[in-house]
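Possible regression after last week's pipeline update?

I re-ran a chain I had predicted before the update to compare outputs. Posting the input and the new output here so someone can diff against the archived version. Not blocking, just want to make sure nothing changed silently.
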Amino acid sequence: MASESFEYMCRFCGKKIMTLQSRGRPAPGICPRRNGRPHSWIINRHNKTGTNAAGGISKSKTIEYMCRLCGQKRTMSQSRGRPEPGRCPRTKNGGPHRWLVNRRF
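New output (post-update):
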């Protein structure tokens, strides 16, 4: 039987936490980049332990992410998850990039 886990990442500070599917989202906690407000968790990676229906390991895909504000692009494999938030030059006070999936190949 395969167990499923998710890696959650705060969209503002980039903190990452791995949890099992049965536990749900992690506790909110306090985000240092949001002035004492809670983390804003998004699913960064979905990991399945075990094999797929055909009995083999699934092929890794490549995803190109693009910042919604400045247009910067990052290409990463699906298994690595989203890029780190970093600092976007187009946001006020050096805020984080807002990554969107631009294309998959």
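Follow-up from reviewer: compared with the archived run. The mean pLDDT is 82. Marking as no regression found.
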